[in-house]
Structures
1.
Amino acid sequence: MLNMAVLLSGSGRTLDNFHQRIGEGSLAADIKVVISNVGSALGLAKAERYGYPAFHCRDNRAINQTLASYDVDIVCLAGYLKLYVPPPALARAVINIHPALIPSFCGPGYYGHHVHEAVKKRGCTVSGCTVHFADGLYDNGPIILQQCVELGYDDDVDTIAAKVFAVECQAFPEAINRVDRLGIDYFWQRVGGER
């Protein structure tokens, strides 16, 4: 079981998903702390309601000072909308989810509805999500899991977003379970050619 910190910037829908799956025993993790860069984020209020320590930290330095007080194996970016730079001890232990199939529609400026708008504009018939380790660049680092969803020709941006979020709710917990099972190093070695 992995000890997890959750970083978020908004409503905490992914936190809801984690909390539910931990409760039903389908996510091999324990949430130790929830941190947001937005003081008014609904996700912080949810974290408090769930009984998790919850903090507003404006920048990487403040986040890392807070994390130093907790025993954390991984940091999950759950709708965290800033570039996070972890302390050296967690440099390879930050997991992000991106609402597209990397390497498509990713990088600076591609987040949230911006991604789905680009997918719609391009006329894609599939989209999905990518769970990956973060390496200091936007939407980069070893991929843990990708999940695909079929899009209809007439799907609007909100429909695309809803379809992708539905698969995110499956993919993110499954990716964490795979990291628990296989270990963090496995994924970094898998793409680096090290065995």
2.
Amino acid sequence: MSEAKWYVLHTYSGYENMVADNIMKLVENNNLHHLIEEAMVPTETVVEERNGKTHEYKSKLFPGYVYVKMVHTDQSWYICRNTRGVTGFVGPGSEPIPLTDAEVANLGIAKKTTSVSFAVGDTVKIVSGTLNGMEGKVDEIDEANNTVSLTVSVFGRQTSATIEISAVQKLDI
């Protein structure tokens, strides 16, 4: 079991993805996987209807913030704090405070493992998110990324959507 915890970095607006990528490049180049396990920008997929067309895009859940799972040492603190675009850690003073397990669970930044009770070709109901209440047919299940690809009917047109496995449940037909 690793002793890494989740910390929050404050960044300049618009620099979130660059900061996360640069931190992970430094980790990879310097073989520091034992100190910094992951840097991520939580996003959600938004489906929007404009001018009769359905548009799907990623939206940042917390603009201006990057979540980093790391073991707090002087070296890991230095790498994160001195990455271009970072203004500091979230917490009082200069000392970062890790997120509690409850905060991590509520934010949904940790990968959850979910049991799959359906198969490709099954009809499922979406139980959360922007497509809540819609039904769709399972096209693909990606357990590694905890997602399922569906075909749903949006305004009478068949549309592909990729959502979390936990947001779907099998219909009993």
3.
Amino acid sequence: MKLFLKYMVSIRCKMVVKSELEKMGLHSRTVELGEADIEEDISAEQWDALNKALKRSGIELMDNKKSILIEKIKNVIVEQVHYSDEPLEINFSVFLAERLNHDYTYLANLFSESQGITIEHFHIKHKIERIKELLVYDDLNITEIAYKLGYSSVAHLSNQFKKMTGLTPSFFKKLKDKKRGTLEDI
């Protein structure tokens, strides 16, 4: 049985879901961002108990198809921006449509209607947070960061970063108190 989960944005969230499933005696085949595949079918009482346990950690079970699709969009973006080491070879809209097996226009309209921002803006916000993270760690230079995140140039990255944060990447890097958002808050 597939379970769909909201607010599941990190590896730590996956660990929480696995743990809660184990506590209830449920066996997971896989636990990924936004979904878990379990061996058993669960009753309404088990569903409620699991949902209650997960909510204590900020995760929720979902059963509405549109909400599930919106969460899948978010999870693809988080996965691609924060956990992929290779830049995309194709346009992100094509990648998303292929990955979710839906027309991009449908996905974009559904997402905007529900979230109040476009998929593109949500994607950019995550890229900016990833840039901040990479600048803080100081392992890559700005050219390497631009390549890693699929920017056409350092200038494009810098312009987008300044537009979103009000700071240049180099100025942000020099700040003593670097403000980064959590994935849950983006």
